[in-house]
Design a protein that fits this description.
Blueprint lengths: L8 H14 L3 H14 L3 H10 L9 H13 L1
Helix pairs in contact: 1-2
């Protein structure tokens, strides 16, 4: 169970309005917001994954591929 106190009246009204617009209860609407939020990795998690990722091995320098592509489009 989660209780949120001290929510401003304007925030409460907007949450109720949006829940009604979707045709769901306020509880269901807030639950969907929370579920959507935790479904995405946090910024810290994304940065951790990037730091721990293995470097990509390329057969040749990426710049060579770019140059070759540019030559092909100008010919």
């Amino acid at each position: 169970m989660i209780q949120v106190r001290n929510v401003s009246e304007s925030v409460h009204r907007e949450l109720v309005r949006r829940a009604e617009q979707k045709g769901v209860s306020l509880t269901a609407y807030i639950q969907s917001i929370l579920e959507r939020e935790i479904a995405r990795p946090s910024r810290d998690e994304i940065l951790r994954r990037i730091r721990e990722a293995k470097p990509v091995e390329l057969d040749r320098p990426f710049a060579d591929d770019i140059r070759e592509g540019r030559r092909a489009t100008t010919e």
